[in-house]
UniProtKB/TrEMBL annotation:
Annotated PANTHER family: CITRATE SYNTHASE, CITRATE SYNTHASE, PEROXISOMAL
PROSITE patterns tied to this protein: CITRATE_SYNTHASE
Keyword Calcium: no
GO term, biological process aspect, one: tricarboxylic acid cycle
Protein's name according to its UniProt entry: Citrate synthase
Pathway note: Carbohydrate metabolism; tricarboxylic acid cycle; isocitrate from oxaloacetate: step 1/2
Organism: Aetokthonos hydrillicola Thurmond2011
Active site residues according to the UniProt entry: H261, D315
Superkingdom, taxonomy of origin: Bacteria
Length: 378
């Protein structure tokens, strides 16, 4: 029995009931558990926001302190996982390395005690704590260096930048990175979160849920766009080349990376906040000519496609912030994954409570009752 017509990409089809986040795509509003993203970016930290998303309310001071301490204590990854990562090819994409490493956590911790709150908290803490260490470790190992052990004195974001760049980060850089993680933590029923929920609905372990979501996030139409935006800026090379480049894209009906969104038909509020963060970094650490190119692209695309609701999304300015923080381009999407683990875990818990396996239907448009044709007659 089919209750609604087929919609490619499930456009506008509710796939779950959720209280984790909400987006008003016409007003450009994003809320996590009812709190506006601008409020959280201004006042919160990534771990506090992760707690809010996963457990449904802002933590008390004691709850936050113990949560931060538990994550700090679990930052180190098992030597056997590190040794496994040493076998990965240096030329491999860090998102593939992350997907394999996240899945490997399941070999050590899965147990699948899904109704035990202690198991659930352990999985949440371990995944939030281990994923950044894995990303940084892969980066150092592919450069031929030994991974740097976590720095117990630094907070979540400061420690990641320390493990990645092998030096203590500037406090402003660490704070701006933490805000980037807040902005990327959750976004209703995006493709990777949907993937996480489908995987969670089979009652598999949370490590498989995150590995499934990482694989989905890596595509250029989803989390992989931030890397493509920088490649586009480098290809354009100067402000005067923007108009011909964009006109050529439109001529070829090619998608302009970092623009457009299934839900937002105005500028993504996260893009606006990221622009402000980029300007703070440029003021302190020096300007980036690619920012001028990016602003010209935004002006031209708004002129030509604004009428169709095509505006910058979260991926358009994030790469400029990450470049200034010394993060290599092909780590932009793994950084997106570090943040989105919080949202995926929140949806994992919500899906467990829903307790119903995803099994949609289809509109069949193939043949019926065809005879089997022997191979010699084909
Ligand atoms: C993220 O879902 C989420 O919430 C995702 C995310 C999150 O936080 O999880 O917000 C993160 O994934 C952001 C999106 C990053 N991807 C990109 O920047 C890649 C470029 N963007 C497009 O591929 C596209 O806009 C999507 C995939 C993001 C949305 O695609 P839709 O909703 O399926 O839109 P569509 O492809 O059906 O396009 C509708 C029209 C088409 O024109 P017509 O055929 O109707 O004439 O809009 C045009 C498209 O050609 N269009 C674009 C465009 N995006 C849509 N034209 C030029 N450049 C673009 N980027």
């Amino acid at each position: 029995m089919i209750v609604c017509e087929f919609r490619p990409g499930l456009e506008d089809i509710p796939a779950a009931q959720s209280s984790i986040s909400d987006v008003d795509g016409h007003k450009g509003i994003l809320e996590y558990r009812g709190i506006r993203i601008e409020e959280l970016a201004e006042n919160s930290t990534f771990l506090e926001t992760a707690y809010l998303l996963i457990w449904g309310a802002l933590p008390t001071a004691d709850q936050l302190t113990s949560f931060e301490q538990e994550v700090r204590e679990h930052r180190r990854i098992k030597y056997r996982i590190r040794d496994m990562m040493k076998c990965f090819p240096e030329s491999g994409h860090p998102m593939d390395a992350l997907q394999a490493s996240a899945a490997a956590l399941g070999l050590f911790y899965s147990r699948r005690d899904l109704h035990n709150p202690i198991y659930i908290r352990d999985a949440v803490v371990r995944l939030l704590a281990n994923i950044p260490t894995m990303v940084a470790a892969f980066q150092l190992m592919r450069k031929g260096n030994d991974p740097v052990p976590p720095h117990d004195e630094l907070d979540y974001s400061g420690n990641f930048l320390y493990m990645l760049n092998e030096k203590q980060p500037d406090p402003l850089a660490a704070r701006i990175f933490d805000v980037c993680l807040i902005l990327h933590a959750e976004h209703t029923m995006n493709a990777s979160t949907f993937s996480a929920r489908v995987t969670a609905s089979t009652l598999t372990d949370p490590y498989a849920v995150v590995a499934s979501a990482v694989g989905t996030l890596g595509g250029p139409l989803h989390g992989g766009a931030n890397e493509e935006v920088i490649q586009m800026l480098e290809e354009i090379g100067s402000v005067k080349n923007v108009v011909p480049y964009i006109e050529d894209c439109l001529q070829r009906k090619a998608k302009i990376m970092g623009f457009g969104h299934r839900v937002y038909k105005v500028k993504d509020p996260r893009a606006t906040i990221l622009q402000n963060l980029a300007e703070q970094l440029f003021a302190k650490f020096g300007h980036d000519k690619y920012y001028d190119i990016a602003q010209e692209i935004e002006r031209v695309v708004e002129e030509k496609l604004g009428g169709k609701g095509i505006y910058p999304n979260v991926d358009f300015y994030s790469g400029l912030v990450y470049r200034k923080l010394g993060i290599p381009t092909d780590l932009f999407t793994p950084v997106f994954a570090i943040a989105r683990v919080a949202g995926w875990l929140a949806h994992w818990k919500e899906q467990l409570a829903e307790n119903r396996i995803f099994r949609p239907t289809q509109v069949y448009n193939g043949h019926h009752n065809l005879p089997y044709k022997p191979i010699e007659q084909r």
